[in-house]
Write a structure and sequence with these properties.
With 94 residues, this protein is of the alpha+beta class. The protein folds into two domains: 46 residues, no CATH class; 48 residues, no CATH class. The chain contains three helices and two strands; from the N terminus they run ααββα. A two-stranded antiparallel sheet has the order 1-2. It is globular and about 35 Å long. The N and C termini lie far apart (40 Å).
Length: 94
């Protein structure tokens, strides 16, 4: 298996979400594959990334929040988080 996603096809969830414009229609894995495809093709030239997520316990009660961070500094990470949050809120109102 290649570690380059440049030519990786769109997932069913990604196609469904593109059509419906609804984030519920794709999985976190679909979103990561989409981003990897953009990075590997040069469409997105990310210099920093902060990925956050949550998973529910098997019992259905407790939640575990997790993150992955690739950036030069804590200040850059916080900037990515806050600017992304602002963009998300603005675009979700449109």
């Amino acid at each position: 298996m290649s570690d380059n996603f440049k030519g990786f096809p769109q997932t069913i969830g990604e196609l469904r979400s593109d059509k419906s414009e609804n984030a519920r229609d794709w999985t976190p894995r679909d979103a990561l594959i989409s981003l990897l495809r953009e990075i590997d093709s040069g469409e997105t030239k990310a210099t920093a990334i902060f990925i956050c997520g949550v998973e529910q316990s098997q019992e259905g009660g407790l939640w575990r929040v997790f993150y992955r961070n690739a950036s030069a500094s804590q200040v850059e990470s916080l900037g990515v988080i806050e600017l992304s949050k602002e963009k998300f809120l603005r675009e979700s109102r449109e």
